[in-house]
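__Protein archive entry__

___
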Amino acid sequence: MNKNLFEPAKIGSLLLKNRISMAPMTRARNEDGIPNENNALYYSQRAGAGLIITEGTAISDTAKGVLYIPGLYTPEQVEGWKKVTQAVHKKGSIIFNQLWHVGRVSHTSNQPGGIAPVGPSDIQASETFAWGYDENGKEGFVTASKPRALSANEVREIEKDFTNAAKNAIEAGFDGVELHGANGYLLEQFLNPFVNNRTDEYGGSIENRSRFLLEAVDAVIAAIGHNKVGIRLTPYGGLGELPHYDELEATYKYLAEELEKRNVVYIHLMDQQSKGSHALPDGFVERFRSWYKGVIILAGSMDREKSERLINAGTIDIAGFGEPFISNPDLVERLENNWELTPPNRDLHYGLGKHGYTDWETYSKVS
């Protein structure tokens, strides 16, 4: 029997009203790092999605690489997020928080006291930009600073930061969390042998390079339960100056099998072609499906036809849409009725204020 995007689906014990997920997108709308009524309005406007995954959310004050992003490590941030989760739940949608540590893709101006960012090694992402302050205090794109290599004990402290943020997410009313293991950020940095040149238990073999990611997953599962823990991965991505390596596919096969043992609630794959990076190779998602039998979300250049073809083939379970949700708060309705989409305006993706954030019109008002 053919399935479509607009029928309910289950992830763990949660029932989604449709098979559409709003993918996480940084919007940089929180000057003080505390979610507010504008964020609640933004997410509730897009709660036609069965599952909403929030923008990347800092797990500590050293996790950030972008100005004005929200966090989930203070009581004030927890209270702010409650406004968001309550607004989304009123519209009948499920909402997960994406837990984020950028690692080496940061700048000293993003760090408390101007300290160096951290990574698996001291190798700098010298052609990658953070959003911070230059030497004259002017806001803008700045080259990622040279990082400091984490000690093994510090790696375990960051695992505790993920755990604390996950507990805070549940306190704030989220239905679960997604660990950000993608897009060239800290967890993915440890996977890549060109950046991870460690000789301790977190470097070398596939198992060792995967250890930090899996330990973080284990710690969060122990704190809030496997039914509330998903993860995002970007195999073949390359963002943040992470080159392809010989064991790349073997690494993701190992992760898929290990994450299935842990019964995570979903794995969220992203094809980074739309980000100007590498596409997933033909057949990769099908191979990933053979390694992992749980719920798969796929995001990146999705449309209705592609989504339903992959869902009906059993390759994926949920289709993730990112940028189209920015300029089309009623995206689900537009997809269902084959209505024209409003094109995005990338000049308005980031920055403080409501313009380009909560003032996009629905189709009925546009037409």
